């Protein structure tokens, strides 16, 4: 996968409306009109978001002229998840440090209480 | 986490230079000058990328006036990974379908060979 493909994926995900569209498509393919309903947005505005998602390969649109259902394509999401996975040890380390710190605080608290 | 925090994280990750900076910081904190070395980029250009990463909470910079080392902050990467995780079943399903298809092709190929 080229780095630009990954850039396009992350850029497509950097908008809350586009993430909400993907969340909607996770429950099944649907038409643009249906997709637009929960959003306080014009059809052209929604179409613009769909084009970004389509270019990033995150959705595929049917070829029927009248009804062009949108379908989720998860491949690029996997690539994005794989990229993030390399950093897992960093967030797990931060979490472990936080746990140690909380444990230390509780021990101190316990000692103070036993003195009182 | 607010949706905009997630948007800022994905937007920060949508650039190959910024992802390369994070990859570099994964091996330890470093100065801006050192960070800039592998890139054919001016210090102001690198500083601009660092500001995007800093605003997204992906890096923290030291407060020393002379040497302001950059350090990776993995918290927002975890949140991005958690968001992507919801779609895991979709890419796993696609992969399973592809496997089924390849198996089918091999069976057909096998039958043809035994006929020849």
For the record, give the distance between the C-alpha atoms at the N and C termini of chain A, rounded to a whole number: 63 Å
Extract low-pLDDT stretches of chain A: none
Approximately how much helix is present in the residues of chain A?
A: 55-70%
Assembly form of the protein: homodimer
**Dominant shape of chain A:** elongated
- Side-by-side strand order of the widest sheet of chain A: 1-2
The overall pLDDT of chain A, averaged over residues, is 88
User: Major beta sheet of chain A, specifics?
Assistant: 2 strands, antiparallel
C-alpha Rg of chain A, in Å? 22 Å
- How much of the polypeptide of chain A forms β-strand, as a percent range? 5-15%
- Count of extended strands of chain A: 2
Greatest chain-chain interface?
A: A-B, 33 and 33 residues
How would you spell out the order of helices and strands of chain A? Answer: HHHHEEHH
Tally of alpha and pi helices of chain A: 6
Secondary structure category of chain A: mainly alpha
Describe the secondary structure blueprint for this structure.
The structure is a homodimer.
Chain A: H1 3-13, H2 16-25, H3 32-36, H4 43-55, E1 59-61, E2 70-72, H5 75-85, H6 88-115
Antiparallel strand pairs in A: 1-2
Can you describe what's shown?
The structure is a homodimer of 116-residue chains. Chain A is mainly alpha-helical and 116 residues long. Helices cover 67% and strands 5% of the residues of chain A. Chain A has six helices and two strands; from the N terminus they run ααααββαα. Chain A has helices spanning 3-13, 16-25, 32-36, 43-55, 75-85, 88-115, and strands spanning 59-61, 70-72. In chain A, strands 1-2 form a two-stranded antiparallel sheet. In chain A, helix 1 runs antiparallel to helix 4 and helix 1 crosses helix 5. Chain A starts with a helix and ends with a helix. The relative contact order of chain A is 0.13. The mean pLDDT of chain A is 88.
């Amino acid at each position: 996968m080229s780095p630009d493909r990954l850039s396009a994926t992350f850029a497509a995900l950097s908008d809350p409306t586009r993430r909400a569209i993907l969340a909607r498509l996770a429950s099944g393919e649907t038409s643009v009109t249906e997709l637009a309903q929960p959003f306080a947005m014009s059809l052209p505005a929604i179409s613009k978001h769909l084009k970004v998602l389509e270019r990033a390969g995150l959705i595929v649109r049917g070829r029927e002229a009248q009804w062009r259902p949108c379908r989720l394509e998860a491949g690029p999401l996997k690539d994005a998840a794989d990229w993030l996975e390399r950093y897992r040890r960093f967030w797990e380390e931060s979490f472990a440090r936080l746990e140690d710190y909380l444990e230390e605080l509780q021990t101190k608290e316990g000692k103070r209480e036993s003195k009182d």
